[in-house]
Amino acid sequence: xxxxxxxxxxxxxxxxxxxxxxxxxxxxxxxxxxxxxxxxxxxxxxxxxxxxxxxxxxxxxxxxxxxxxxxxxxxxxxxxxxxxxxxxxxxxxxxxxxxxxxxxxxxxxxxxxxxxxxxxxxxxxxxxxxxxxxxxxxxxxxxxxxxxxxxxxxxxxxxxxxxxxxxxxxxxxxxxxxxxxxxxxxxxxxxxxxxxxxxxxxxxxxxxxxxxxxxxxxxxxxxxxxxxxxxxxxxxxxxxxxxxxxxxxxxxxxxxxxxxxxxxxxxxxxxxxxxxxxxxxxxxxxxxxxxxxxxxxxxxxxxxxxxxxxxxxxxxxxxxxxxxxxxxxxxxxxxxxxxxxxxxxxxxxxxxxxxxxxxxxxxxxxxxxxxxxxxxxxxxxxxxxxxxxxxxxxxxxxxxxxxxxxxxxxxxxxxxxxxxxxxxxxxxxxxxxxxxxxxxxxxxxxxxxxxxxxxxxxxxxxxxxxxxxxxxxxxxxxxxxxxxxxxxxxxxxxxxxxxxx
Amino acid sequence: xxxxxxxxxxxxxxxxxxxxxxxxxxxxxxxxxxxxxxxxxxxxxxxxxxxxxxxxxxxxxxxxxxxxxxxxxxxxxxxxxxxxxxxxxxxxxxxxxxxxxxxxxxxxxxxxxxxxxxxxxxxxxxxxxxxxxxxxxxxxxxxxxxxxxxxxxxxxxxxxxxxxxxxxxxxxxxxxxxxxxxxxxxxxxxxxxxxxxxxxxxxxxxxxxxxxxxxxxxxxxxxxxxxxxxxxxxxxxxxxxxxxxxxxxxxxxxxxxxxxxxxxxxxxxxxxxxxxxxxxxxxxxxxxxxxxxxxxxxxxxxxxxxxxxxxxxxxxxxxxxxxxxxxxxxxxxxxxxxxxxxxxxxxxxxxxxxxxxxxxxxxxxxxxxxxxxxxxxxxxxxxxxxxxxxxxxxxxxxxxxxxxxxxxxxxxxxxxxxxxxxxxxxxxxxxxxxxxxxxxxxxxxxxxxxxxxxxxxxxxxxxxxxxxxxxxxxxxxxxxxxxxxxxxxxxxxxxxxxxxx
Amino acid sequence: xxxxxxxxxxxxxxxxxxxxxxxxxxxxxxxxxxxxxxxxxxxxxxxxxxxxxxxxxxxxxxxxxxxxxxxxxxxxxxxxxxxxxxxxxxxxxxxxxxxxxxxxxxxxxxxxxxxxxxxxxxxxxxxxxxxxxxxxxxxxxxxxxxxxxxxxxxxxxxxxxxxxxxxxxxxxxxxxxxxxxxxxxxxxxxxxxxxxxxxxxxxxxxxxxxxxxxxxxxxxxxxxxxxxxxxxxxxxxxxxxxxxxxxxxxxxxxxxxxxxxxxxxxxxxxxxxxxxxxxxxxxxxxxxxxxxxxxxxxxxxxxxxxxxxxxxxxxxxxxxxxxxxxxxxxxxxxxxxxxxxxxxxxxxxxxxxxxxxxxxxxxxxxxxxxxxxxxxxxxxxxxxxxxxxxxxxxxxxxxxxxxxxxxxxxxxxxxxxxxxxxxxxxxxxxxxxxxxxxxxxxxxxxxxxxxxxxxxxxxxxxx
Amino acid sequence: xxxxxxxxxxxxxxxxxxxxxxxxxxxxxxxxxxxxxxxxxxxxxxxxxxxxxxxxxxxxxxxxxxxxxxxxxxxxxxxxxxxxxxxxxxxxxxxxxxxxxxxxxxxxxxxxxxxxxxxxxxxxxxxxxxxxxxxxxxxxxxxxxxxxxxxxxxxxxxxxxxxxxxxxxxxxxxxxxxxxxxxxxxxxxxxxxxxxxxxxxxxxxxxxxxxxxxxxxxxxxxxxxxxxxxxxxxxxxxxxxxxxxxxxxxxxxxxxxxxxxxxxxxxxxxxxxxxxxxxxxxxxxxxxxxxxxxxxxxxxxxxxxxxxxxxxxxxxxxxxxxxxxxxxxxxxxxxxxxxxxxxxxxxxxxxxxxxxxxxxxxxxxxxxxxxxxxxxxxxxxxxxxxxxxxxxxxxxxxxxxxxxxxxxxxxxxxxxxxxxxxxxxxxxxxxxxxxxxxxxxxxxxxxxxxxxxxxxxxxxxxx
Lengths: 501, 501, 463, 463
Ligand SMILES: Cc1ncc(COP(=O)(O)O)c(C=O)c1O
Ligand SMILES: Cc1ncc(COP(=O)(O)O)c(C=O)c1O
Fold this sequence. Notes:
The complex is a heterotetramer, with two copies of chain A and two copies of chain C. By secondary structure, chain A is α/β, with parallel strands linked by helices. Chain A has two domains: 93-350, 3-Layer(aba) Sandwich (Aspartate Aminotransferase, domain 2), CATH 3.40.640.10; 353-484, Aspartate Aminotransferase, domain 1, CATH 3.90.1150. Chain A has helices at residues 15-18, 38-41, 59-71, 93-99, 102-105, 117-134, 146-163, 180-187, 205-213, 235-244, 265-268, 277-280, 338-374, 404-413, 441-460, 463-467, 479-484, 493-496, and strands spanning 138-140, 170-174, 191-195, 217-222, 248-252, 272-274, 295-297, 309-312, 318-321, 390-393, 430-433. In chain A, strand 8 (309-312) and strand 9 (318-321) form a beta hairpin. Chain A is globular. The model of chain A has no long low-confidence stretch (mean pLDDT 95). By secondary structure, chain C is an alpha/beta fold. Chain C has two domains: 70-84 and 358-462, Aspartate Aminotransferase, domain 1, CATH 3.90.1150; 88-344, Type I PLP-dependent aspartate aminotransferase-like (Major domain) (Aspartate Aminotransferase, domain 2, 3-Layer(aba) Sandwich). Chain C is built from 14 helices and 15 strands. Chain C has helices at 13-22, 28-31, 53-65, 88-94, 97-100, 112-129, 141-156, 169-178, 199-205, 227-236, 321-324, 337-374, 399-406, 446-462; strands at 74-75, 133-134, 160-164, 185-189, 210-217, 240-245, 263-267, 283-287, 300-304, 310-314, 380-381, 390-394, 411-412, 415-416, 435-439. The chains are: A alpha/beta, C alpha/beta. The C-D interface holds C 2-3, 53-54, 57, 85, 87-88, 92, 95-97, 353-354, 357, 361, 442-443 and D 2-3, 53-54, 57, 85, 87-88, 92, 95-97, 353-354, 357, 361, 442-443. The structure holds pyridoxal-5'-phosphate (PLP) (2 copies). One pyridoxal-5'-phosphate binds at residues 85-86, 145-147, 178, 180, 223, 227, 252, 254, 276, 291, 293 of chain A.
């Protein structure tokens, strides 16, 4: 038995370790049709020999197990979550209410369209809104996430070139880009062509010209503001250069929270945009997903959008259009993460144009506020205003033997979720801070205060950081060990030696 | 700023202390009717001078505040909760789903009955079921809780006697009774006549005869099994004696979880029964309520039930019957805690007769299992089988300077909610343990193990108990101080001295 | 063996055997040996057989579908239960297992969540009402009134309570029923034409036998009472003033505490709680400091732990039945704590400005609707003077008939006052069958009000 | 100023001023100075104006009410999305803010909740499929298939993937679309009459250019495939066997891992997740040990903290894009973790016995319905042999016509196979317009099945 520890979630057995022979939570209707012998239904040869070892628990055990686990987790509902590039803003509960309305949640994708007019209308409307926000023409809601939107967009770029009898291979990607960009480029059959950033954090125009000169340009992918949190002032020139080289411009909209109603990617010269609804439009991230990554394209590219496309007929009816000969095909089974899209629709409908603008204004103000307050505390490599996020560097702390990761772990002890630390790669010991617009001044002040304290600790007593966290359910975890000897699933006693549960 | 402490809920400021001028979470429709000057609507003299100082917060602040608070709380969902007499069994989530169906939750009490047939049917059906479970004739669902059912029942006893031209004053109550029993007796205009318990924990028949001999007997209130967890074997005789004396028998059904489908109060000789749905029928207790305390009465007493009574017409329609001239009147506004009753209905409908019986069988087995396992560890005053709960005594620990309350506080450190300690009054240093039927054997074993450990600690290191709890968000709280200098509401700075928020 | 009914018992057959062995029994039967044979039940209860979870849900959905809830119609029903908008965060918070499935916080060190929330609720009620001390909740408005009457009786040691007929008729009925054997005897003072309390008549019946005077603000017909005048009458006679208040109105209307109330009670369902056919709602009670030790129910107080850290506990429990038994101020034990939490969350969402905004919006829309209705031929004012969100009109046809007639068009026109006819006398009681009580919450848009006026107009023309 | 639109920004005007002062700006405008004037937007976006929370809810309720969800009818729709009963506890758990509003668990010490739940999910998927390694989820069945194909291509360095036409036609379309520029080229093998894969034809096209063979079990028309035979064909040619599996079937049907599968993928919406018009569902992928370092997406592994206490972390991240960028096994970043949690809760509720029970009940009822339908004149078997919970029949009238005809009676008769006509060839493709795909979950009682048979009989008679 464990030592005295009164809080729940401290029983760290897995659900399989809590399982007990013969327990059950389920109930199912009694068999009301003739009890044909099982062999007559499904021949023994097709049937399972050994049952899957699912946990055997009573209902209260299941509830307690997951209630306990939840208390070991941290969400936006728990506190500030300034995870750069992830836009961990408040997820309105209204979104959950609307997504759970049976009229949406209970829809089968193959029920007659006439019985799903409300859902198709919602999708159509959301598509129109996203097009307006992007400053482009047509939307597909199919992609399940940002990375999936990237793939869809790149396949459209591919289709566009093929339609013109070309098959260029290179897609330009700045060194600040998120890892999904190069990975998507490869999956779409292209090769990434890296371009450097300049001293202000934007695309190095010189280098861009060089890369373009290499020819075979399919397009460029850019996040603007980029993952350093800076807006590329040369965007119009960049677009011109890429277009001149025959390439298309893809806007990774992960950072859209900075520019809603303020600057539209279409107006900047982009041809394709994806949005991460789970960042920009407040749909919850659920510990990893589901999100949605709708993409919007220019009128010229609309023909290539995946089927079905959501359409509105002359008579006002809404329908799914499969009759699109130039379409790249289908990006996913069915039509998209509709449950997520309902949330995004709810959010945009509530905020309206003024509310969306206020989102970006506040997100940018909050980031600048934290950045300015941290100048002198941490290194802030780019001496300019940031947009909705900024990257600080823990390099000065290295002399104390302390790294960004240690700062992150110590933040946990103070109840603040750490910023992103694994990228952008071009900043040493990066701490990418994105407060989002839903954090109050007090919370930002507290965050700054905690950073200050930790930096002070790094000077006075660096071991405190190296030992951190000390107030979490576990101390620092050995990730190297996990990778060296991967244990990716529960091992059962009988796997090692025979024996009952 | 607080010291390093990473878990939420540790910011113990109240919501008023977190409030910030000008923040808001709310949104409301824009005024769409003429903006008549306020003075023309409500004269200044009737209007509020100073606004109520409600908290000013953003929505995420509100969510975080209460999410944090919740983590400081303990429910059945958090772990074992063997609070004697409270029947803290698992509260099925299905109950919540059904109670929230808009067809129930959205009903207005004064909407035409024709538009609420489903709700009235549900109430009628539940009434029938409770009557069957009680072994009596007619039910009212109006009482909001057990104590309220007691009052209703006592008023019916009063009406019954008045109808016979009598006005007896004394209601007999055993010394083991819950405090609501004597309090209700007083509120109904009676005076409590205490009766002692015998050595086996039941009503002392000798003493009962004496009390009855005093005359002026309106009735007797009894919990059976009583709060010692023992079933009164003399119940038939008791009922006979009381009836002979002209009294009626009221069954405090708080302990019904022991006898569902096994023994019915009506069959025992009781005339009136209340159920606590929030004990016996799994409706959640919500940190104090709401519950429901329906009462069931014999056919002779049905005429006195409060109005409206739920009725089914010849044609199958359901209606609320107000035309009951002998009724005691109305026990509450509207018809009862319908939202709670939906949950109780759901529970009974799912379990059926076999399931209910299994509830009691298991509740009793669990209690005996824990009691037997604790013999030798704690004092168990009554050497007999218990029903769904039992009372242990911490008297042997007194020699170490340790009391039942200290054991309770130490249990907190081990993640087990303590048993009831404030009653029954007739057992010294009582620990009233009611495991309930939804606790698994492992959980009971763990509970026993924790008790053992604590008793061991009491011997080895009693200070550990006196210092407990040490793992809670607060150490032991000073209840005497709270009563001496009551601070029952937030004080605002400007209450002490003038100043803005 | 398939599991064809819901069953929350965890034990396997093997568990049962092991456990029986420990308790030295050979069967579960044996455990019940103390129950005399003649009161043992051998046949199964005559209840429908158990069902699996999905079948139970189906059955409850069937029953729910047999209702047409007011919330799904354009409803003007009020009279004590209001269809205000409950923000989405409320259910999330009250649905958290740590709140939902907790008992009364007897172990404060492990119950700081609910204790602090009650402390915050008490504060909110004090702020709204302008009183010093609020309890942790009551069952509902009616029972809170009965408790207030008992409190006044024991405080003043007087035997009569004088109630305005403007107090909700069902509250008055509950008072009569519950205090039949105990507490002061009620006496009702009629309303005058225009639906406000006849204060002159009130003054006449209040005397040195009067424990309390009770008025409701706004009153049952929506009229705004002169609370200060009622306070004067009560206090002049040494009686307490009890005010039945509508918490939603208290962002706009003066706090009863500022007008002389000694006790404020009411129903706060409209804050954060579903209508739910009238229950569970949320009774509340707040009192002036001198009555602190007489208030029924739970009270949470602030204290410190042994390290001096702030914490909250149940306090002044010597008022309560579980400690004081027959000497308690009341028998109330379980209350409506979760409903109180819902109200607190709703109030926190509204905040200081939001509650006033909400009141203003309702008032404006109610005033607009009233004016439009009074333009219709044969529709006249029943409630006169200013109103908050509810008012009554006299129709040229029976109110119940109008309600029935408009249901097919999706309207619930209001509560027919005739339903409460037996509870009124005097000038205001005449022709109640034609009187309709109409409530307008923030959910009712102008478009709906206009459509409703048109629908009423059509019926009035018919009639 | 009233707050007439939802707004989750906390700042008061005073806050804004203070903060602007700190950042040394006189207006928010100034902060955007880096954005060139010609790409600044000065007019407001052309979107409908914001609404208050209650108005938004009204509007969304209007849209929801414009649908008649399958869940509210007696539905026999399947074909990849199933209306299984989701136990009530699922929404409670996935709705807890700590799960719902968390990001990917990059900070393991503060994310043990979701990490452990994923570890448990991975275990459940491994147990169901009989595989060694499962990832933390994929978007859906179709994208999981595309990923499996890419995996097989890079593992075998071969350029072709052979798919049974029994694989869901939309999955096949997704595969074609997503791998257009990358990964092996697909080739489809037709079904034979009776709807099972033509294994002889399969054997003919599989060769040493084949990276993988893909079969679905049960297949799109509900036929049970000979997975072991497909494995033999694949392995004989040095190809991998990819099985598209229905997780609900795996309490009853043999685990693909035991039959030779190297990769098992599929859609697990039917565990714990609403149908939601087809998304978000839950893609999954499990592989045999040797493919561990090729699997796309997140993996959670067990490790210890510096005190030796067990904990869980994201691991083998060098497969992933956020570390390895263009060298990653996939571009997937966000996945469907919350849906995976829902599935895990549902599976924990069902447990070892429950899943088998569930499968058996569906199978029995499906077999009963099939037998009854096949008794009707003109109704013949399309799917032959044993089935699990879904099967296809050939009708004497167009299937879409039957579906339309039965809607007014409250039935959704099934999915007309004609909808996918373009995706089939060979003997099974003939006359698809008359073929109806019928799924029977545990929600369909015998009474409903009987009523449905009667309704179909009436239409068949007409036709
Ligand atoms: C800049 C950027 N691009 C793309 C992505 C990928 O988005 P998703 O996780 O929705 O696939 C992310 C997500 O973190 C991102 O930050
Ligand atoms: C034996 C007994 N009787 C009566 C009651 C009062 O019930 P309620 O809290 O529902 O008013 C209780 C509650 O604890 C009790 O245990």
